Amino acid sequence: VEVLKSRVKAEMTREAQLPEVHTESIDQMLRAHLASFNPESEDAEAENAFYVADLGEVYRQHLRWKALLPRIEPFFAMKCNPDPMVMRLLASLGAGFDCASKNEIQSVLEMGVDPTRIIYANPCKQNSFVKYAYANNVRMMTFDNAEELHKIKRFHPTAQLVLRILTDDSKSLCKLGLKFGAPLDTTAFLLRTAQELGLDVIGVSFHVGSGCFDANAFGEAVIRARRVFDQAKDYGFDFKFLDVGGGFPSAHITEGITFEKVATILGSTVDALFGPDVRVIAEPGRYYVGSAFTLATQVIARRTILRNETEALVAAQSEHPAHMYYINDGMYGSFNCIMFDHQACEPKVLLKDGGYTYQQRLTSEPHGWASVWGPTCDSIDCVSPKSSLPLMETGDWLYFDNMGAYTITAASQFNGFRRSEILYTTTEPEVSLHF
Ligand code: PLP
């Protein structure tokens, strides 16, 4: 009884510790937080960079997915942003999860998600992680090489295996094919090996690359998958599972590749090539969270680049930055996406001369070229080498929108800087029902 009591208490404390989900707009959230900020205050926390996460945006993306790709079950690629509130929301909406490690699997299971809603989508796994999946009934997992098949035979002989094939990722920002995916001239050998080992291969997966900018890549990849489905019959397999991976654009991408274009091509190709008895899943990451997070940062220091008159003239003509602004989140924190995810992050003015300017263009203010830097002592820590900004003072604020994907998830604490905290809101009232 005592053990149970302490468990219930721990559970209640955990529940009680859930952060508050506000119902204001992002604008109102930013404004309220900055209004309470007093530069003279002793509260050092108040000047830290912070995120506003709109869970309503995640919810809208889920509804959009269901409307445009009703046949394809989304398994959120949590590596993209394992934020506990996002995860809880998606779990309660019935999404599955793409996990890449033991810790990721564990955190999904701890939310009470059934192991059948997890795909362990990392083709090269540590032995102990495979054992953990086995012990916890997580059966679906990907592979792309024969060695992995032998490992799985040893540690998880009842796994439901998904053969990850190589597809054309040349039209993507992050070319995952450099590391993963079986070329089509190796799939026969892999299927034969699986057959000889008595393993259960249930289907095919692929990833067109993260940050894909050509919707046709999805259609072409599905055609390749069909070839492997047909080939599998020669080795005694009757595939009934297709995983179309990630690479879906975030909601703020409205030109070039859009989710609508991907859904039209992908949905119709899947329907044309695969009967209704084939279960189709996807592993969207940035699609869900990219546009849901806005980051506010304070200008903590400024350096005016001093030049003599001739240099100044040359600099002005060639538009060299005249100021360097230092902000309190950087490349080693949220802006690691610049290095790892090939993103360009554009600063916008949030608070200047005490005036609040979210989503306002400061057209009356003269703009000049400036570079924006993170807070660490490393010179690689550059957020933007050249941005057009009005003259900012120390204590002013800049913001960056569309900061939800591959940002905070890989942020380090290099130089002792903490990860930026997150304030939650929802612009869709229904979301509150999920917490
Ligand atoms: N699935 C796998 C196996 C991945 O490696 C990734 C990203 O690296 C994703 C899904 C998510 O990709 P995206 O965020 O582009 O949707």
TrEMBL record:
The keyword Signal does not apply. Pathway: Amine and polyamine biosynthesis; putrescine biosynthesis via L-ornithine pathway; putrescine from L-ornithine: step 1/1. Gene3D superfamilies: Alanine racemase, Lyase, Ornithine Decarboxylase, Chain A, domain 1. Residues 50-404 form the Orn/DAP/Arg decarboxylase 2 C-terminal domain. GO terms for cellular component: cytoplasm. Its cofactor is pyridoxal 5'-phosphate. Residues 55-290 form the Orn/DAP/Arg decarboxylase 2 N-terminal domain. The modification N6-(pyridoxal phosphate)lysine is found at residue 79. InterPro entries: Ala_racemase/Decarboxylase_C (IPR009006), De-COase2_C (IPR022643), De-COase2_N (IPR022644), De-COase2_pyr-phos_BS (IPR022653), Orn/DAP/Arg_de-COase (IPR000183), Orn_de-COase (IPR002433), PLP-binding_barrel (IPR029066). The active site is at residue 377. One of its GO terms (molecular function) is ornithine decarboxylase activity. It comes from the Eukaryota. It catalyses: L-ornithine + H(+) = putrescine + CO2. This is ornithine decarboxylase. It comes from Lunasporangiospora selenospora.
